[in-house]
Amino acid sequence: MDWKVFLATLSAIFFAELADKTQFVGITMASKTGKPFSVFLGSIAGYALVTLISVVIGTLLAKYIKPEIIRYTGATAFVIIGMLMFFNKL
Prior knowledge:
This protein is an all-alpha fold and 90 residues long. The chain has a domain at 3-64. Helices cover 86% and strands 0% of the residues. It has 4 helices and no strands. The chain has helices at residues 3-17, 21-33, 36-64, 67-86. The longest helix has 29 residues, at 36-64. The chain starts with a helix and ends with a helix.
């Protein structure tokens, strides 16, 4: 286990996900259902599945595409989607 990579990933994910829409969904579901443990387990399962998919895709892409291209493409897509949302086109 590479603890430096683990801690860097933990920190990046924690701060990126802090107060995002996923957290608000969890708050809403827990308050509506009154079943916080079920919401907690469902949240963990959902996020684990999304993370598994992203890690598998990232691993596959890294075999064929340079990491810099993946990073720039992701950043560009993020900016374009943000602009489209800003101008109510998405």
